[in-house]
Amino acid sequence: MKHIIGGNPPPSAPPANPQVKSVTIDEDSAGQRLDNFLMRELKGVPKTHVYRIIRSGEVRVNKGRASADTRVAVGDVVRLPPVRVSERAEQKTQAMAEQVAAQATGRVPAKAFPVLFEDDHFLAVNKPAGVAVHGGSGVSFGVIEQLRMARPQAKFLELVHRLDRETSGILLVAKKRSALKALQDQFRERETGKTYLALVLGAWPSNKKVLDKPLHKYLLAGKDGAADAGERRVKVVAKDDPDGMPSLTLVKVRAAADDFSLLEVTIKTGRTHQIRVHLASEGMPIAGDDKYGDFERNKALARGVGAAALKRMFLHAWRLQCNHPATGERVELRAELPPELSTFLASALPGAA
After folding, report:
1. What band does 85 get if pLDDT is binned at 50, 70 and 90?
2. Are 121 and 326 in contact (CB under 8 A)?
3. Above pLDDT 90, what percent of the chain?
4. 3-state class of 216 per DSSP?
5. What digits encode the pLDDT tens for the residues 166-223?
6. Residues contacting residue 79 through CB under 8 Å, at least 6 positions apart
7. Cβ-based burial of 2 (10 A; exposed 0-12, middle 13-18, buried ≥19)
8. Residue (of 74, 156, 149) closest to 113 by Cα position
């Protein structure tokens, strides 16, 4: 059943954590793989080092060796060896601590986002454009921090997945560790259905339905101090490129004209900026996309088309299907276009809404 509902002095020695620690697994941590538990517990320790200390037997579960895929259970005692973290990681950890302090002192504003679905296991909110899903990379706070401030009684609130800052729509938040694991497993195994509405520049061919193009993440080169120097970007690469990650996007035309096409876009893989890069690689970028779009057209769109202007990227997480983490029942969630997009669409592509 289905329900719809970011001449120097010599470097100093890396900071050290010289103490062996023993951690007892509680209910919130139960069910995690050992490697995932360690990455959360040993903040700032490189992933390669985490796997090395597991393989070497320095990490013990109930005094015995364990593999990376061992599932920890309530009451298990995990031995954590002394570890070292890089200065950069230490700075990141400090920044995270400052974010936590900001929440504790009330500098993160509480906000109740529109709720599309909620029960004891998870909730789905309708995220507005322009809001990050979490703090970091120059952003003090995001949806998850604001939700936690708005719900001080909640014992557990964690993001199940992510949306780009400028993308609006459905965002899942787990209320239990078991729900987080179950839902994230579905995302990883491609058992969820995620469909977006995107308005692109140009007339999309109705027979162009499958975009199967590997993607590669890289950092923008630039002079120090440049606004975009070091920013993350993604590009399409050749099928045989060793750095390419398989990426599959399905496209259905909902409405089209010479200047614009409204597309239903379903992603089968969840790569960074996947929809934006795949559509732009066909010569029809998303309207308002400030990273991969047509910048001159974007300026014109911001001034207005007909009676409406577009001042954001036209990409919206419209529909999401998943199996309920407790019952297994198929759930379908929908978030209709926000007013700023539906108003622009009525002017740019009459009859498409």
Report:
1. low
2. yes
3. 63
4. strand
5. 999 999 999 999 999 999 999 988 899 999 999 999 999 999 999 999 999 998 876 5
6. 20, 21, 22, 58, 59, 60, 61, 63
7. exposed
8. 149
What pTM does this model have?
Answer: 0.72
- Stretch 269-276: mean pLDDT: 93
Q: What's phi and psi for 130, nearest 5 deg? A: 90, 0
Per-position DSSP letters for 280-305, written without gaps between them: HHTT-PBTT-TTTS-HHHHHHHHH-B
The burial class, CB within 10 Å (0-12 / 13-18 / 19+), for 307 is exposed
- Among left, alpha and beta (phi > 0; psi -120 to 50; other), residue 138 is left
18 or 201: whose pLDDT is higher? 201
Q: Is residue 198 a contact partner of residue 279, using CB atoms and an 8 Å limit?
A: yes
Is 164 considered catalytic here? Answer: yes
What are the two backbone dihedrals, phi and then psi, of residue 278, each rounded to the nearest 5 degrees? -60, -45
Q: Name the token pair of 315.
A: 């990409």
User: Considering 28, 69, 76, 164, which one is annotated as catalytic?
Assistant: 164
